[in-house]
Amino acid sequence: MQSKRFYTLSGSCPDQIGIIARISGFIAQHQGWILESSYHADEGNDEHASRYFMRMQVKADSLPFHLAEFRDRFAPLAAELSMDWKISDSAVKRRVVLMVSKQEHCLYDLLARWQSKELAIEIPCVISNHDTFKAFVEWHGIPFHHVPVSADNKQAAHAEICRIYDEVKGDTMVLARYMQILPADMCTRYPGQMINIHHSFLPSFVGARPYHQPSSAASS
After folding, report:
1. What is the pLDDT along the chain (220 residues), one digit of tens a residue?
2. If residue 5 lies in a helix (H) or strand (E), which one and from where to where?
3. Structural domains of the chain, with CATH
4. What is the 3-state secondary structure (H, E, C) of 152-167?
5. How far apart are CA 130 and CA 145, in angstroms?
6. What is the model's pTM?
7. Which helix (H) or strand (E) covers residue 133, if one does?
8. Nearest-angstrom CA–CA distance, 95 and 21
């Protein structure tokens, strides 16, 4: 039976000719087997230069070395491309911190999929601005953190969320109907680590009732 383990290499760098050729060439040079790849170029604007984004999955057992050595060997090429990059191992479960408010369906679904092992992740904790689901979460054996958010304490509350996330060594923060807007500096602090599964049709229809807004706009 062939191993399903793979490494995921992702990164971004200033757009230029030959990025794909150089990176895929590096992997091929070491007999690496690329399973999947995706690319995207952001053309930029007057304030930001054009930037290139990439993601590759490489079959782990096709390479003659482990992940640590891959990092060491790839680092010089990444430096030449001025690339911000990371590589992860599918054998190491992602540590996913869930954030929720008062709506339960996203939380229930995620915990059910985690418990049935459909989601191969670790959930080190759940953070909420309400204590509604404390007993339910702790029944699953997962720590629950109640971090109230008000107009007067938002900065302190966001700092506490960051402290908890860092303390549990989170890899990904999932906003599972977390009905608060996170500040820009927090998003900058954790680039590529946040997933919002709120149903709003952002950015055109913002808020708790996005389905009502298109019909309202059409009738006005």
Report:
1. 345 899 999 999 999 999 999 999 999 999 999 999 999 988 766 666 789 999 999 999 999 999 999 999 999 999 999 999 999 999 999 999 999 999 999 999 999 999 999 998 999 999 999 999 999 999 999 999 999 999 999 999 999 999 999 999 999 999 999 999 999 999 999 988 999 986 556 566 666 666 666 554 444 3
2. none
3. 6-89 (3.30.70.260), 94-196 (3.40.50.170)
4. CCHHHHHHHHHHHHHH
5. 9
6. 0.71
7. none
8. 33
